[in-house]
Amino acid sequence: MSYAIKVENLSKKYLIRHQGGGAGQAALRDVLTEGARRLGKRLLGQKVAAAQYSEEFWALKDVSFQVGQGERIGIIGRNGAGKSSLLKILSRITEPSAGGVRLRGRVASLLEVGTGFHPELTGRENIFLNGAIMGMSRAEIRRKFDEIVAFAEVERFLDTPVKRYSSGMYVRLAFAVAAHLEPEILVVDEVLAVGDAAFQKKCLGKMQDVGREGRTVLFVSHNMRAIRQLCDRAILLSGGELIADGAAPQVIERYLRDTSATGEQGSLERVIASLPEDPDFKLESIGLSQGAQPLGAVVENDKPLEIEIRYRVLRRCTGLRVYFDLCDSDETLLLRSFHDEAGEGIPSVEPGDYTSRAVIPANLLGPVPYELRIRATIFNVRSCLPISGVRIPLTVALTGKYNQAYLEDTFRAKFALPLHWETVRRP
Amino acid sequence: MERGSDNEIVIQAGGSVANYWRDLWHYRELFVFLAWRDVLVRYKQTAIGILWCVLKPVTTMVVFTVIFGRLASLPSNGVPYPVLVFSAMLPWQLFAGTLTDCSSSLVDNANLLTKVYFPRLLVPAATLVVNLVDFAVAGAIFAGFMVWYGVAPGLNLLLLPAFLLLALLTAVAAGLWFAALNVRYRDFRFLVPLLVQFGLFVSPVGFSSAVVPESWRFFYFLNPMAGVIEGVRWAILGEAPRLSIPGFTLSIFLVLALLVGGVVSFRRMERSFADVV
């Protein structure tokens, strides 16, 4: 069989440091003081405890699969399932710890939209720079230059530094360059989470074109509708392992079925622990409970669902908003609620530890898969958590006063609000 | 990583080093673009760009001339003191600029490095170009200076590139180590300017090496930049060099060893780079 991608026994190990401020960069200062402290202890004849510095964490465990030429394949899985690690290895940003990958042809990724754009440079200059970074030759860029400019609709601003571009123009230009790459293998990671509806539509259209041209597409998303629409085949990852590989509808069904009320609590903690550091805001924990009991396997819809978000504010900031989104499995936003909704004006938050609680009332959620997304932003500045928030899937069971004679899967709505009906027989 | 038959890319644990250098060649156009970007950005506001790279050597020259030449009355062997200082500022600035840019290059380009693959060695290498452009601009100013003071270089000038090459090699050798350390330790960047500052005072920039006692010269010239500066003065001003040949030769070997070690440590860093930053 002619393959485009062949992944063989791929594993990726990360070391999580427990001291010295979590994963990532260490401070030389800490390393030196720790070293001096240990040396001092040894000189004084005290026992030195074994350094408990790091812990292994396998982001990918022995994953193997093949993707045929021209196949469009979706990769699904919860946060921390290993999807990003897989993509990073495929695009050669990081090396595997064991196993290997064979790729036939050039790989490009829509994940890199705008990578390397320099705000001081003009649109024209950035097209060349960005094109080169994404692997186009100078001749290739020159050939497609007019096409890129037309696609992005920025003709009049070609010689304006991109720092003066509106965010819409910026994204259009960045996407135009990416769209004119001609890779044999295209990797797409959650692009649909950014940009406006028109942009998302453009992305989807482009990806369909690419597939039609016989090129291979690897699509990672939490958006099941998009996966169903674009991919023939899907792969399900969980805890770094490949647990299903087959026709997209079946794999998606398996994914939705496996997702328990909130998933394993451990994985939520891991997701929180591995959040990128933010200078102002640190999410400490998210607690879900019903009637003072931690949430079980399912959310019982006749009881209120309490959401408790514990966080630390590191610096005084104005307009910090902690909130959550409630989405359905197609990523449609159903409800958004902010912690300061009851207040007035834009308050400043002093540094310190905070707990914000919200309650989703009883008899509101229906027996459909939801996703709760915990988010935090500083108003008009930036998001303090990853763009799609901390995702918590919810499974809800109808336990309230509904007619139990009918099956749950006849339920077709997003909410299950029991309204008061009065039905009388007219004489 | 290697390129197999019919454009097949093989990614293996532990990555093969064999084709790294071929990959480097393959990405040569990107090198040009990265260097072009750095130059463009630095000289974007043309007037300020040029002013910036002139201001630094000129102010240092004035300060050193006043302190070492006037107040301390150090010898200058008949060369006008400002010319003596400026001729040293040229290679020093080239060295210090390259070293500083090299050291911070990986961290500065982190958003690029965590998103796209290319041989990471290109990033510190591209900083050479912008510093050479700075050097050319400062060199033009210096040429005007020499005309003003009526100092003309002789045939020695032909050897100037050799000394500049050594300055660049020294900067890159140390820069690669620093770049890797910068990634590993987030507070290392505070140390780099300190080291550069220290280097400025122990190298014969503000004074001639004539002030260094004969018996110390061997050790003094273990600092490759001391040799480079004296060499440049010899090439431009035709001054009899006060080099300690054994010391200078040894320093060249030290630089080469440092460079090889730097490339090796950089290569090792490169493989886990995206996991750390």
UniProtKB/TrEMBL annotation, chain A:
PROSITE patterns: ABC_TRANSPORTER_2. One of its GO terms (molecular function) is ATP binding. It comes from the Bacteria. Signal peptide: none annotated. Pfam families: ABC_tran. Belongs to the ABC transporter superfamily. This is ABC transporter ATP-binding protein. It comes from Geomonas diazotrophica.
TrEMBL record, chain B:
The chain crosses the membrane at residues 47-69, 81-100, 121-151, 157-178, 190-212, 248-266. Keywords: Cell inner membrane, Cell membrane, Membrane, Transmembrane, Transmembrane helix, Transport. Residues 48-269 form the ABC transmembrane type-2 domain. It is found in: Cell inner membrane; Cell membrane. It is a multi-pass membrane protein. Belongs to the ABC-2 integral membrane protein family. This is Transport permease protein. It comes from Geomonas diazotrophica.
